[in-house]
Design a protein that fits this description.
CATH class of chain A: Mainly Alpha
Number of domains of chain A: 1
CATH topology of chain A: Sodium/glucose cotransporter
Distance between the termini of chain A: 78 Å
Number of domains of chain B: 1
Order of helices and strands of chain B: HHHHHHHH
Number of helices of chain A: 21
Strand content of chain A: under 5%
Structural class of chain B: mainly alpha
Order of helices and strands of chain A: HHHHHHHHHEEHHHHHHHHHHHH
Shape of chain A: globular
Oligomer: heterodimer
Number of strands of chain B: 0
Shape of chain B: rod-shaped
Number of strands of chain A: 2
Largest sheet of chain B: none
């Protein structure tokens, strides 16, 4: 039996396992969004970390940035920490004050609360509710697409390149089925399994790699810092993009709002976010170290995830080809599934609550899941096949666009309700956000045309900064006028 | 002809019929001969040509496999999800041969799946026997609280 056959069997096993899990533990209406019980900080943290550790991130950290910049890439999770601390200190107390999780009392039993609904309530505006829901859904669907784009490529080791979309359809059907049937309860439980599996696999492979006594120096993990004209540990645009986007990402991620609604205890949310940060930072560090060590021991490996897999398969060492390779492949598959399920469920909740305004029901959730499956596959086809986007362009162009909605969300949480409900503020929020969105797309388009990665990386930070200034200035002027 | 058709998918329908000795087997007069020929790769040119023609008509295989699946499930009287998924995999995987690279030997994979299916069935049978024995013991002795082995062992070795 070849290593590829072992991987193939493991893939079948994992997909069957999740399918069976979803079918056996299918949720009823009350438990679909975990409204019948509360999540604790451990479940919150595990779910947060599993959703954050995507295959795209692993690939990105593992191969490209980790090799070039060593452990300095950990600035990314550290900037996430700043975002979490700010969220815990400023927004979370307000959510507690307004009792975000129970504000939708009429529906709380079946659907919980959503970001869109909460913002609609704060601004007393249906338009803002729709706009914020739409932007955050676009953001989360883009994460889904990136995951599928990366996920499909790793199947090239046993599926012919011309048929790789079959893997995409199969993975999507499995992930959408178990998420659609199982709801949040299943997603949280599978997230726990997926996170710890990735963690243990990465740790075991790192221990083995260290046992091979690679010739490593401290410079491999901490390369000589670049001159200040170029950047500070990382190149300026990348650093700026990472810090800016990661800080603003916490309030604009639908997934976080869904978990808060399901937790309902704000001190548990605060601890859960911190736990999620520690776990995300640890697993990111593990994968960076794994990548650096791997290329030291197998220097002729092609610098890509598939290169690593093929290099491991051709190794004469039984442990590498028959144990570590299937384990690593399964860890990648787990990373893919955990991000796909965590991205899909908030979308189902948001569509059913913010757009359809339904009172829930499993049939309705399953219908939305099915429609989302079709939309996701269709978007994949349009974006990557017809428009011909590549991963990096898509990553910088769309992924960070979700943070455009952050100024409106932060103001909605922190602002005075009487002022927020003034027509001028509502209109400013809508226009500034839409203008920000188009500005980011325009910068990205120009960057793509000029082939300038710096410009692409700065698309959202610049656009968000401009829309924030616009919103805050109008709010301050209105407050001043009121006084 | 039907036998020939089934034999074309050796790892799915044919093995399925062969292994489980389904009553439907006797319908196909030359079924066994074709299986043997297929396995030994001793088919005549005409037979090979016929097989190639059938290869073009995947839908026909599909229908025959669906019939096989429904039969196997009804004969096993098992609607447990694990064997059901395994049977579906065993039946559908041969169709995926064209999609897979040469790194994968599909025959070997399907043999392993058959093995897993048998093991799963044995486990299911053991669990059922255990459940029956447990239920019997609960009826027999009021101290048995549940059907778990631990409970039975506890009562036998510690309590008594």
């Amino acid at each position: 039996m070849t290593p590829f056959e072992v991987i193939f069997m493991c893939t079948l096993g994992i997909l069957a396992y999740f399918l069976i899990y979803g079918i056996i533990y299918k949720s009823d209406v009350k438990s679909y969004f975990n409204c019948d019980k509360q999540l604790n900080k451990t479940e919150f943290g595990n779910s947060f970390a599993a959703a954050s550790t995507s295959l795209a991130t692993v690939l990105f950290f593992f191969i490209t940035l980790g090799l070039e910049n060593g452990l300095y890439i950990l600035i990314s999770p550290l900037s996430y920490l700043i975002g979490i601390l700010l969220f815990n200190k400023t927004i979370l107390p307000k959510l507690q004050k307004y009792d975000y999780a129970n504000i939708n009392k009429s529906n709380a039993i079946s659907v919980g609360n959503t970001l869109g609904l909460f913002m609609g309530e704060r601004y007393n505006s249906r338009l803002i509710r729709m706009m914020i829901s739409f932007i955050t859904i676009i953001g989360i669907v883009s994460i889904l697409l990136i995951e599928l784009y990366v996920g499909v490529d790793i199947f090239n080791i046993f599926i012919k390149t011309e048929y790789k979309e079959i893997a995409l359809i199969l993975i999507s059907i499995v992930a959408f089925t178990y998420t659609g049937l199982g709801g949040l309860n299943t997603v949280v439980k599978t997230d726990k399994l997926q996170f710890w599996f990735m963690f243990i696999v990465a740790s075991v492979i790192i221990i083995w790699l260290f046992m091979q006594k690679p010739t490593i120096t401290i410079k491999d993990f901490f390369p000589t810092p670049m001159p200040l004209t170029k950047g500070l540990l990382l190149e300026w645009p990348l650093l700026f993009n990472m810090i800016f986007v990661n800080i603003l990402l916490i309030p604009s991620m639908l997934r976080n709002w869904q978990l808060i609604s399901a937790t309902r205890d704000y001190s548990e949310v605060s601890k859960g976010l911190m736990r999620g940060f520690y776990l995300t930072a640890t697993i990111s560090a593990l994968f960076i170290v794994l990548g650096i060590l791997f290329f030291k021991i197998f220097p002729h490996t092609q610098v890509s995830l598939n290169g690593i897999l093929i290099s491991m398969a051709s190794s004469e060492d039984f442990i590498v080809s028959y144990i570590f390779l299937p384990l690593l492949f399964m860890a990648c598959l787990m990373a893919l599934l955990s991000t796909v399920d965590s991205s899909l469920l908030p979308v189902v909740q948001s569509i059913s609550t913010d757009f359809i305004k339904s009172n829930g029901g499993r049939k309705r959730y399953l219908q939305i899941t099915f429609v989302m499956l079709i939309i996701t596959l269709g978007l994949y086809w349009i974006v990557f096949k017809i428009m011909g986007f590549n991963l990096i362009e898509w990553l910088y162009t769309i992924f960070s666009l979700v943070t455009i909605s952050s100024p409106a969300i932060i103001l909605g949480c922190l602002g005075n309700e009487n002022i927020l409900r003034k027509k001028v503020i509502k209109m400013t929020v809508v226009f500034a956000t839409i203008v920000g969105l188009f500005l980011a797309l325009l910068i990205s388009y120009i960057g793509n045309k000029m082939g300038n990665v710096w410009l692409i990386q700065l698309n959202t930070p610049v656009a968000t900064l401009i829309s924030s200034l616009w919103i805050v200035t109008t709010y301050k002027l209105k407050t001043h006028k009121q006084c | 002809m039907e036998g020939l058709l089934i034999a074309q998918v050796p790892v799915a329908s044919a093995l399925l019929y062969e292994a489980l000795n389904l009553p439907g087997k006797c319908i196909y007069s030359d079924f066994e001969n074709i299986i043997v020929k297929f396995q030994k790769k001793e088919m005549s040119l005409d037979e090979m040509e016929a097989c190639e023609q059938f290869k073009e008509k995947k839908r026909v295989y599909y229908i025959s496999d669906i019939i096989a699946t429904s039969r196997i499930l009804s004969i096993m009287r098992v609607f447990n999800i694990v064997p059901a998924i395994l049977v579906v995999l065993i039946i559908l995987l041969p169709y995926g041969e064209i999609l897979l690279t040469s790194n994968i030997n599909l025959d070997r994979i399907i043999k392993i799946l058959w093995f897993v299916l048998y093991v799963t069935e044995i486990i299911i049978i053991i669990i059922r026997i255990k459940s029956k024995v447990g239920t019997f013991l609960i009826n027999l002795h009021p101290d048995y609280k549940d059907v778990s082995f631990r409970s039975i062992l506890y009562l036998y070795y510690f309590k008594k």
